[in-house]
């Protein structure tokens, strides 16, 4: 089973230094426990801050099989020496083919929310599909889940491209995602 941990320092701590230290701790734990991918998804940071943070994370991952993907920032991935980049499936955004024309050895993943998104992203190395389950924070629903049946259709549509289930994934529902055809799981809170 493929596992992808996604960062969000703002849910870890409101104090910036503590939050960044928590990200480094997450990277260490990913390396120690064999998490396949760590997606650095800190959208509010500027390029220089992202490069610096990514380099520190890469130091923590050194010698492990965990690969660092930078969310939506090819420039940061290249400057930091990351293993690849994670993209959105929105039309008009960067595509896996465009990434590989600049960064041929990049691992490229894409977030998909519909079957059309999957059709547009079949040249990725793997896809994140979701949200599969309803996501709630402090009892308040953030997003409605698309369900296991749509996950199954997404996996069939993707064919040879691995699909990781995303959104509301827990230890309790992981096996249902795998039974629906997912190659693995991805999440933020799941790996904290």
UniProtKB/TrEMBL annotation:
Domain spans labelled Thiamine phosphate synthase/TenI: 16-189
SUPFAM superfamilies: Thiamin phosphate synthase
Pathway(s) this gene product operates in, as recorded in its UniProt entry: Cofactor biosynthesis; thiamine diphosphate biosynthesis
Domain of life: Bacteria
Organism this protein belongs to: Terriglobus albidus
A GO biological-process term: thiamine biosynthetic process
Keywords on record: Thiamine biosynthesis
GO cellular component, one term: cytoplasm
GO molecular function, one term: thiamine-phosphate diphosphorylase activity
InterPro entries from the UniProt entry: Aldolase_TIM (IPR013785), ThiamineP_synth_sf (IPR036206), ThiamineP_synth_TenI (IPR022998)
Extent of the signal sequence: none
Name of this chain's protein: Thiamine phosphate synthase
